[in-house]
């Protein structure tokens, strides 16, 4: 690096901006992080952007930026159940409980970002509170050697053109409800009727008509061990309208409980034991994401180049948990590349090249695994084969959830034969033999019988 460090501006202090800011500061750059809210408000006066579970592999990239500060919220597997049909026709189709073969970590993203901002400030980073509009961005970009926009899905993201070849949807595929609840610790038999390892595991319920629900152990910024829920409601299913009346944490819990009582009665008593977090009125969120990939570089009014980071350039539905993970990998790779590049100009070509490397490393696969978990028609064959195979073979089940950690193997599975070959290779026996053993589950164990 030259004697005078190059200056870098980052706009937006969510997980993407805070991670890049800390990494670039540690790499020796003169970094200013612009935020529309003071640090304390980012932590205590907004909901978390998402649950932001880090499923394995992304944690390796994150370790290049910051040491692992958290021991609560780690899980090693996921109890999965699939239901189909309505009313009397409703069937318990399949169930499996694979080990991930990695450790996933679910920590309040407000806490993660705040820990990064704290270190960034301690190490000489500059934090400016201002809402950056397009005019201000022009001035910021003019005054820095490189400027990154990490303002999330809305607002300044529209400066970056939508990449129509990489974007598959023009409307949200799910309505989302997130809520964190407390009252049952992680050490006992919580959800043990579902999981061999109790609170070491998360839970994933799929409902063919209505959507999916994820729930898992979570580290909340104020009260510690808690349980985080995400409901992914299909827009035309029976759950979506239940979100209409949700306007606070209590009504979010009520909607959640209503869905469990009606659709997942086996789990309802365990969920009912959990309560709202009085200390955090922002412990819930509802919304929807239109999965969108944007061009990575834009030009301000005055002709200055800016590059996008995190949700600003790739926003995915959270059903496969790829958003924050991708942001961390993108930021971590950017920091390494910028360090190598120090002293040279951060041109549009260089910034685009870095994004393309990230796209090949993770971005493309993150988009595709999200389409798989959304049940996109392009992946009908994969779903038809892989879920029954997972139900009868633990290695296939682990491989299916291994895609949340590293989605790249999915890119090699283009045809039915590819998927059958994958199942056969993972299971160590012909795929037809694996699939031949599948029988519908019929019934599921229940919290009512064994308690929580
Ligand atoms: C329900 C749900 C569940 C999720 N679960 C997971 C999961 O399990 N795993 C996973 O990896 N991902 C998950 N995600 C996605 C993940 O939460 C996001 O991808 C990630 O948090 C995005 O971070 P970001 O920093 O890019 O954006 P944001 O968190 O949106 O941060 C943007 C920041 O910029 C600030 N800002 C905005 N405009 C301006 C402006 N004009 N000037 C200055 N500052 C500005 C905002 O205040 C904010 O602080 C989930 C998302 C949702 C909705």
Automatic annotation (TrEMBL):
Gene3D superfamilies: FAD/NAD(P)-binding domain. It holds the Pfam family Smoa_sbd. It comes from the Bacteria. SUPFAM superfamilies: FAD/NAD(P)-binding domain (SSF51905). Residues 152-267 form the Styrene monooxygenase StyA putative substrate binding domain. This is NAD(P)-binding protein. It comes from Gordonia asplenii.
């Amino acid at each position: 690096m030259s004697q005078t460090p190059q200056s870098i501006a980052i706009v937006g202090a969510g997980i993407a901006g805070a991670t890049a800011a800390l990494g670039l500061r540690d790499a020796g750059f003169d970094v200013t992080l612009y935020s529309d809210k003071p640090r304390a408000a980012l932590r205590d006066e907004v909901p978390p952007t998402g649950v932001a579970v880090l499923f394995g592999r992304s944690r390796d990239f994150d370790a290049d930026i910051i040491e692992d500060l958290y021991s609560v919220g780690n899980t090693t597997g996921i109890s999965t159940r699939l239901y189909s049909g309505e009313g009397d026709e409703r069937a318990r189709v399949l169930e499996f409980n694979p080990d991930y073969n990695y450790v996933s970590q679910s920590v309040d993203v407000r806490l993660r970002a705040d820990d990064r901002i704290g270190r960034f400030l301690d190490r000489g980073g500059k934090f400016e509170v201002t809402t950056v509009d397009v005019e201000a961005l022009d001035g910021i970009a003019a005054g820095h050697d490189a400027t990154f926009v990490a303002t999330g899905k809305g607002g300044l993201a529209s400066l970056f053109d939508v990449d129509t070849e990489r974007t598959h949807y023009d409307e949200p595929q799910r309505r989302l409800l997130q809520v964190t609840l407390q009252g049952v610790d992680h050490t006992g038999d919580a959800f043990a009727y579902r999981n061999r390892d109790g609170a070491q595991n998360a839970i994933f319920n799929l409902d063919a008509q209505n959507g999916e629900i994820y729930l898992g152990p979570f580290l909340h910024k104020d009260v510690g061990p808690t349980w985080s829920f995400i409901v992914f409601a299909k827009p035309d299913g029976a759950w979506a309208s239940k979100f209409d009346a949700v306007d606070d944490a209590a009504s979010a819990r009520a909607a959640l409980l209503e869905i469990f009582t009606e659709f997942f009665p086996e789990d309802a008593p365990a969920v009912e034991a959990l309560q709202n977090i009085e200390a955090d009125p922002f412990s819930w969120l509802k919304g929807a994401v239109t999965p969108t990939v944007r061009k990575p570089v834009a030009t301000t009014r005055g002709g200055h180049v800016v590059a996008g980071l995190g949700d600003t350039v790739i926003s995915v539905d959270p059903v496969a948990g790829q958003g924050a993970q991708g942001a961390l990998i993108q930021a971590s790779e950017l920091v390494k590349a910028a360090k190598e590049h120090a002293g040279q100009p951060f041109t549009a070509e260089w910034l685009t090249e870095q994004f393309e490397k990230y796209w090949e490393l993770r971005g493309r696969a993150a988009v595709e695994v999200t389409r798989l978990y959304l049940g996109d028609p392009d992946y009908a064959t994969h779903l038809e084969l892989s879920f029954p195979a997972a139900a009868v073979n633990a290695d296939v089940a682990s491989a299916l959830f291994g895609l949340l950690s590293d989605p790249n193997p999915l890119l090699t599975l283009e045809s039915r034969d590819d998927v059958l070959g994958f199942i056969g290779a993972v299971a160590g026996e012909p795929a037809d033999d694996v699939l031949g053993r599948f029988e519908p589950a019929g019934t599921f164990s229940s919290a009512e019988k064994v308690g929580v």
